[in-house]
Design a protein that fits this description.
alpha/beta; globular; 15 helices; two-stranded antiparallel ribbon
Length: 374
Amino acid sequence: MNPKYITSISELDNLVGLAPKAREKMETVTDMFPFRSNEYYLSLIDWKDGHDPLRRIVIPDIRELNGSGSCDPSCEKDYTKQPGLQHKYDQTGLLLLTDVCGGICRFCFRKRLFMSCERETVKDVSGNLEYIREHKEITNVLLTGGDPLMLATRQLEPVLRELREIPHVSIIRIGSKMLAYNPYRILNDAELLHTLSRYSTPEKRIYLMAHFNHPREITPVSIEAAEALRKAGVIVVNQTPILNGINDNAETLTALFRKVSFAGISPYYVFQCRPTTGNGFFQVPLEESYDVLQKSWQACSGLAKRARFVMSHATGKIEVVGKTAEHVFMRYHQAADAVDIGKFMVFRSNPVARWFDDYQHLTAEVEKQKVWLF
């Protein structure tokens, strides 16, 4: 099976049948935020349920046009060393290999890639690979975009080969939602699996950073594809943001953590949804997200609750580590400025806060609202 990609609302209408008003609203949204999916993923949606969570993941919603937000909430431009290459944390280089995905998540934090004529990816990555060669502090490289598995294997293979020839690069990560969006990309390409097995060695592994956001995305065929990756020597982990109307309840998150861990996929990060343009209605208040996550873990084994709850802020990955009725506790799990790594912070509770900056800007006298512990 090779699912057909659907890139317009008219194609979607022909496939599933849309109410005229719904179609009109979707087309209005796509004037600003493009749409992309495929027949496989669309078949998982219950089209009789207007609140189906998988529908919310991929189908345009008129609420995307409401509210504020930033096209670059994590200030990735500040860490872009040359087109297609980011270097924010000493040990990690990030290569944007493509601006195409198997589906466009409506809550994508990098949706500017689909909206802007200004390209951030490059076809010729030789200059970026040379940067990585010269920076020996880089021990791991994240291939992202877009979705690197949208590239043909013949395009991906040279990048993997050259990275493996750099002695100080020990880990290659591939950020991909293809296990959810189109697992046939993996199952139908023996050359891809052969290539991955060649460059994922016992000493230097390739990791696939999967993006299962809801347990219904974990189908028998997606588990089969994950197992094929495992047999090729690839380690699969999972990360997801907490998303309003998709997985913002303990029962859904418990089911997600259980299903991935039962399949041998380690939970890695749980993100607070970034305040990207059009993402406002997906965001859940941070302290509510924390409570939902803690409740979901009550029914999980230790293996199912290894994820860290973080915000990918401009200054670093800020982990939310605890809260009381009056305070919220955070620490820098990773930081752009290495001296901040591990820094512990205490803030007064703010039940409506949705992002780190909401705590920083509680009052004009910020220092009276927060305590920094070193």
